[in-house]
Specification:
Layout: E1 15-18, E2 21-25, E3 40-44, E4 47-50, H1 56-65, E5 76-77, E6 80-81, H2 95-104, H3 112-120, E7 177-183, E8 206-209, E9 226-228, E10 237-238, E11 242-244
Parallel strand pairs: 7-10
Antiparallel strand pairs: 1-4, 2-3, 4-11, 5-6, 7-8, 8-9
């Protein structure tokens, strides 16, 4: 099994390659939240993940190709994204809408383990950018109280100090929180599979990762996890897609 230390390569569709290998998922005993324990070793096959969060312009393309779908909660002029939101993350997506968008792109939702590996890196850094605490130059977070028709979000990729050092993935902390594939279970780590875990077989909530513009600093940590009712279209939740190296969206 590879160490996962090789630098990732950018594919031709705006994704980066996360190499196969092991990493420690979760937080050590006595650190983080209880649902982040126990810290456990996970092996992942190589996969691709989007370098940037899904933008309003990206979702406008989806709407143009899918006339039965509707725009999200704000940021639109009819079915066209307003100029201010073209390069900002699309938000207000339910888990199912994010899943369907990724599928239309020939991709899929990242698993929780894939998301954390992209954020924590092969050396298990506490934040996507490294060891330094969050600040406004690294993450869009800790703001209150109005979404300002979406203008509270930063343009994707604009906070260059917050990108991951190996693969250059942006906005994994703050801006829009992100749905992942897995059902949420607070004690799942006690029985998680070692190889390519995909979460519990069923559940009440799906996992959200990464924190949002209105989250506090604790949500910026790479290991932080929480679950919410995926039927809601939250004002802070957006989308990022992944893809297996085989090219299969599974």
């Amino acid at each position: 099994m590879g160490s996962g230390l090789a630098l990732a390569q950018e594919s031709d569709n705006g994704m980066v390659l996360i190499p196969a290998g092991e990493f420690w998922m979760g937080s050590p005993d006595g650190a983080g939240q209880k649902d982040e324990n126990p810290r456990h070793k996970v092996y992942l096959d190589a996969y691709y993940i989007d370098r940037l969060e899904t933008t309003g312009k990206d979702f406008e393309e989806y709407l143009a190709a899918n006339p039965d779908q509707h725009p999200t909660i704000t940021g639109w002029d009819g079915r066209h994204v307003v100029p201010d939101m073209a390069r900002r993350p699309v938000f207000g997506l339910t888990w199912m809408r994010c899943r369907d968008y990724c599928s239309w792109r020939g991709k899929r939702l990242p698993t929780e383990a894939e998301w954390e590996r992209a954020a924590a890196g092969p050396n298990n850094r506490p934040y996507p950018w490294g060891n330094e605490p969050p600040g406004p130059e690294r993450a869009n977070f800790g703001k209150c109280c109005f979404v300002m028709a979406g203008r509270i979000f930063a343009e994707v990729g604009s906070l260059t100090a917050g990108k991951t050092p190996e693969e250059g993935v942006y906005d994994l902390a703050g801006n829009a929180a992100e749905w992942v594939f897995d059902w949420y279970e607070k004690d799942y780590y006690r029985r998680s599979e070692y190889e390519n875990p995909r979460g519990p077989e069923k559940g009440k909530y799906h996992v959200i990762r990464g924190g949002a513009w209105n989250s506090d600093a604790n949500y910026m940590r790479s290991a932080d996890r929480y679950g919410y009712d995926d039927a809601h279209d939250f004002y802070g939740v957006g989308c990022r897609c992944a893809k297996s190296v085989s090219g299969e969206a599974k």
